[in-house]
Every structure is written in C-alpha cells, then in structure tokens.
Amino acid sequence: MLDPMLSPSVPPSPASESLHQEMERLRQAVTHLQGELSDRDATIQRLQRENQQFQQRFTDHSDALRESNDTLIAEIVERRRAEEQLQTVLDAVPGIVSWISSDLRYLGVNRHLAQTFNLPPESFIDQDIGFLHTSQEFNQFVREFFASSRSDAYQEISAAVGGVRRRFLIVAQKYNDGKAAFTVGIDITERERAEAALRQAEAKYRNIFENIVEGIFQTTPDGRYLSANPALARIYGYDRPEELVAHLTSIQQQLYVHPERRAEFIQALQRYGKVQSFESQIYRKDGSIIWISENARAVYDAEGCLAYYEGTVEDISDRKQAEAALQQAKAELELRVDQRTAALTEANQRLRSVIQERQNAEDALRASEAELRALFSAMTDVITVFDAAGRYLDIVSTNSELLYNPGTERIGKTVYEVLPPYQATLFMRHIQQALNTGQPVKLEYSLPVGRWFRSEDSPNGRSAPDDFHNTAWYAATVSPLPDNRVIWVARDITEKRRSEVSLQTEQEKSERLLLNILPAAIAAELKQNPESKAYRCNAATILFADIVNFTGYSAGIPPDTMVDLLNQIFSEFDQLAEHHGLEKIKTIGDAYMVVGGLPDPMANHVSAIADMALDMQRVIQQYHRPDSQPFSLRIGIDTGPVVAGVIGKKKFSYDLWGDAVNIASRMESQGQDGRIQVTQAVYEQLLPHYRLRPRGTLLVKGRGKLPTYWLEDRN
Questions:
Q1: For 530-583, what is each residue's pLDDT tens digit?
Q2: At 554, which helix (H) or strand (E)?
Q3: Sequence-separated (6 or more) residues with CB below 8 Å from residue 644
C-alpha cells in the first residue's frame, strides 16, 4: 500500500499562491491595524521587499521571455513549423501578449488578450492598436517606444476592460531591427487597490493616533520610550514626541515622583498582562507635578518573549484637585454643622430630631461623594468625522456608549437631521471655524440625554447649565483633515461639571451658615486669620429681650410646636435687626440679644436700638397664647463701652462683655411685662425725639441704685 503522505498532488501556482498570501496579509493588517499600529512600518517594509522580489521575478521572467522570443524568431525564419510552438508558449503566459508593427498595427495577440475582450485572436490582426478605445496611455506608450532608440521599455498604464478601469504593467521588446515589437501586460489592479487601502487605513488610524486627547505610548521593558503621540508629549510638557522619547531614558527615575510606583506597574503587567486606571504622580518637563491614569498591556513576539509595553495616559490632575476641594469643603461643612448643632443642643435639648435629620443629610452627602468618585472613572471619548456640510462620515466610540441616542443611524446624515437646532448650529459654527482657520478648535457643549423632543421649556434643545438629569456635557477638540473634513474628538465631562457645580453650591451653603453664626466682617477676618481676637468699642448699645412666661407655656405643648413658634418669632426679630442695621448676638432659650454699633461703627446706634425695641413690642402682640391673650416682652437697654470678640477653637461664638452688657441684662430681668426699661445714658441720648417716663431708682446688683426710665414711643 502506498503511503498517503507520498501520494502526488497538484501544487498551487506560485504566482496565485503568492498573490493570495499577500492579499490575506493585507486584509489582516487592515482588520487589526488599530491594535497593531506598532507593526505598520515592518509590514510596509515587508510589502516593499515582496514587491521588489515580484519586480525582480517579473524582470527575470521578462528577460527569459525576451531570450526565448529571440530564439523563437530565429527558428521561425529557419522553420515555419515552430509557429505553433511559439503560440502555445505565449498562450501560457499569465498576462496579455501582443505583437505590434512600427506603424502601430497588431501583428497578433495571445489567447489571453483575445479572451479579455471576448474577441477571436485573428480579429486583432492588422487593426490599429487603438481600435478598441481601451487606453490612450497604452497607445501613447507604444508610439513613443517606436519613436525612441530603446530596445525595451516598461510602464504602468490604465485601461478600460468591459467598462471597468484597470491597471496594467506593460513590458515592450523590439525585434526585426526595430520594425516590430511584442508587449506583455500584467494586471496589477488588485495589488494597487490593496496598497491604496493599506495606505488609507494607515492614514486614518495615524490621524486618530495624532489627534486623540489621550496620550499613547510604547516602552521597552527596561524603561525607555519607543514611541509617543503628540497628546502624551503635551501631557508631559514637551513640544514634540521626539523630544519626549530622547529625554526620558529612565522612566522610573525621571518620570515618577515615587519610583516604586513604576515597579508596582511592571509587577501588575507581569502578573495580569495588563493594568487599568493605574494612578500615579509624575514630573512634567518643567518640574511641576501632575496626576496621571494609565491603561497598558504587555506585547509579546511570535516566540512568546516580551517585546514591549503599550498603553494610554490620561491627565487626571483636575479630577484629583476637584476631589480634594470637595473633600475639604465637606470637612469644613461637617465642622460648621457640628458647631451649629452643638449650639442648638445647648439652647434646647428637645431639638434632637433636627440633629438626626442633619446627620441623615451628612450620610447622604457621603453617599453622593462615593457615587461621584465612581462616576469620575467613567470618562468617555467619542470620535466623529464630519464633512464641510456637517455630514456624519464616520463615528468611533472608545470604551464608551453615547448618552445622546436619537434612535436613528447617523452616517450620511447632517447635524441638522440628528441634533436639536441649538446644538446643530453650534456644531456647524465650529466645523466651519476649524476648516477656515486650519487650526484645532476647543469647545464645551451639552446634548440631551436620550431622545430629544421640542418643548416650551427648551424649544431649541438648549438646557440649563446645572441640568444634569436631562443633559450630558462634553469637551471637544475639532481639528481640520484633508479633503475639507474635520475630526471631532469629544470627552464626556458631565461628572466634572456636576462636581464643580456641587462644590460651588456647598461653598455657598458654608458661607451662608458661617454668616448665620458670625457677623460678616468677623467671618471675613477669621478666614484670613483663625486666631481669636478681641476689640474694644467705646460706644455701643445693647438690647436684651425675654418672652414673658414662655417657659411655663412651652411645658404644655409638643417640642416641634414650641420650636416652630420660637423660630417664627425670632425670624421676625432677625428681619428687624437687619432692617435697622443692627447685629444679632445670640438667643438663649426664649431670650434675644442684639447690639448696635458693632462690629461696624454706627452713629445712630442708640436710636436704632430704641426703634427695634418698639417694633419688637408690636411684633410680639401678633402671637397669642391658647387663652387668646398676646405674648409680651420684657426689654432692657443700656449704652456704653464694651469688649467684643470671638471665642472658641472649634465652636465659634461672637459675644460681648462689659458693664453696659450686664446693666442691659439687669434692665430686662428687673423690668415689667410689656415694657422697655432704659438707663440714664440711653434716656439722655433719646431726648427729645422719643417719649420716655421716669420709673425711679432701681437697685442693680454690683452697681447700687440707678435711675431708670420707660421708653414708650417715638414723638
């Protein structure tokens, strides 16, 4: 029995096998070009070598053919019967062959040429070479060849075959003392199409490589850069990628702020083959420090040996700063909330329910921060190619999903057919700017989330800057391309804008909370210098007010009802203080303290306090007890020098000290329901514009007997 491995088989044609292999490699190169950009140069060089080898084989074959033809011609002269053998040889040539006389007429053609045009070979004889009107280039080539002194020549020409344009390589050889020539043509259309497709694909992905906003790199295992794109050079502070590659010869020592991070990076690659979102601090060229996030993988050669590392780099410094600022703002807010909560607790223990609600708000804030951190890592890039009319030519999405989905296929449509009117106009304006200036254009814009419908609130698709529920925000770079096109590279910055708006909101809340605790001037000074300071004021007027018998009343009502009532009354008092230009100092239970002339000097502080006292008496009469009787106030006022300042390291408190403060408190506590008791100093400054009546002398603890007066109204 014969061994099946030794059984004869018909080998494939070398030329067809070589062409098949070449086409297969080209298709694979185009399919995987994005992931194998690093191999492009080797692929092109290999194709060039193969083309040279093909040209050499063709030249060798042509030389052999010419030699064979000379031999055949000599034999034809000697022996007529050799014509059939020559025709057989020419019919076997894998191309078109013709014999042409010097008067540009066909002497004969091989069977392959005749079959190409669906004609019998004899129909070509004695016909002008242009009788089929297939190629003016071929006619011109043959005409110039006979007119020259050359014995052979070759040229690539275009010809119409069955209405389709194809490319041929034509080789011509003279014989019979230059009176005739034979030509051989090889169809190279598919080869040129494959080369053109390869060049177009390389140009497309090279353009993406050059214009993408993320840095792209290749490094050796020992820490040197093999290649980098312009985005990486910009991130690292270099003018050109070549400068970066030449300067950074030791990535671990020159680039990383903490060199051990490079070792951890390599260990992760060796263990898992790739790393994602690897965050590190690095030095830029000018010595400044930034944060980066790296995605990388290890690349191995055909023998399984590590060849290099490749990946992408993103500058996340803004995100890190935003996180730090948000954390600091959160910490400050928590501190101030704790201070305010402690103050309210000291005022009344029955406000625990309010404290619990505040704690719930803090938990929600921390949960929101965790969600924000997770969303920061979900950055998206969308790359789109537009023509000058705003028509979508191509879309590439890198590890992302478009938030705005109109539900229609975009390719071939214009921005006016896909986007809301406002965004469509914005897109066209920046496309035209990039084309007209020839320079990249940067912008930020919003798109509706999901399908867009025209509404009364947003008739053109334009949304509010802080509407993140219905809107996605993008930062884009629009760069001009050849053939009057642009590439639009967009990054989803919705979460970045959300964090910026949130940070601004929290800062505003913190400012309002601080101003509720301290006077504006004192709060501004503490921001600059947190050390406690005291100030002496030679002229200030102090008012103490107490709601008569409020403690007994509050014992019989629910805590929330009591707190709500106090809040209504004191809120109106706060409005009066603001109206008269006075500064509220504090509330203690159902007592209220306000001062005039602090922290900013005030010429009419005595009369302003008097006016507020009279207004407070009118306000309190609007509130009634369960027995329908109105509440009443005891109010005491004194004027004189005081000392003011902020005390405490954590729970700030702005307070006053001095005889005038103590006496004003005594004027209130030793007063009468519904009356305003003032001292001699206040009495003298209010006359004659106010109506006052003497009460008599009053024994004041620590001061002895003092004359006092009732303030009744304005004159």
A1: 555 667 889 999 999 999 988 888 877 888 888 899 999 999 999 999 999 999
A2: helix 550-554
A3: 534, 535, 537, 540, 595, 598, 599, 654, 655, 656, 657
Reported in sequence order, the residue ranges of 449-533 that DSSP labels E, i.e. its strands, are 471-481, 485-492
Dist. CA 186–CA 551, nearest whole Å: 111
Angle made by CA atoms 617, 696, 713, in degrees to the nearest 5 = 30
As a whole number of angstroms, the distance between CA 678 and CA 674 comes to 13
Q: How far is CA 312 from CA 142, 276, 650, in A?
A: 55, 10, 46
Answer whether residue 445 is part of any domain. yes
Considering the domain architecture, whether residues 147 and 244 belong to the same structural domain is answered as no
Query: Tokens 């399908």 belong to which residue?
Result: 451
- Judged by DSSP in three states, 372 sits in helix
Residue 253 three-state SS: helix
Q: Are strands 306-315 and 215-219 parallel, antiparallel or unpaired?
A: antiparallel
Q: Do residue 68 and residue 152 come from a single domain?
A: yes
23 close to 30: Cβ distance less than 8 angstroms:
no
Q: What is the DSSP letter of 630?
A: B
The answer for residues whose C-beta is within 8 angstroms of residue 365's C-beta and 6 or more apart is 330, 333
Instruction: Give the pairing of strands 106-109 and 534-547.
Output: unpaired
Whether omega for the bond prior to residue 630 falls within 30 degrees of 0, making it cis, is no
Query: Cβ–Cβ contacts within 10 Å for residue 494, how many?
Result: 20
Instruction: Kindly list the strands in the beta sheet with 471-481, ordered across the sheet, starting from the edge strand earlier in the chain.
Output: 392-398, 381-387, 485-492, 471-481, 441-448
Distance in angstroms (rounded) separating the CA atoms of residues 566 and 559 = 11
Q: What is the pairing mode between strands 676-679 and 633-647?
A: parallel
How many CA atoms, within 13 angstroms, populate the side-chain half-sphere of residue 536? Answer: 3
Let me know whether 617 and 680 are in one domain.
yes
Dump pLDDT digits (tens) for 581-629.
999 988 988 999 999 998 888 999 999 999 999 999 999 999 988 778 8
Q: What is the pLDDT of residues 326-382, one digit of tens each?
A: 888 778 877 876 776 666 566 656 656 656 765 665 665 555 545 534 433 444 578
Cβ atoms within 10 Å, residue 684: 13
How many structural domains comprise the chain?
5
pTM of the prediction? Answer: 0.34
CATH at residue 304: 3.30.450.20
* CA neighbor of 653 nearest in space, from 517, 542, 540, 511: 517
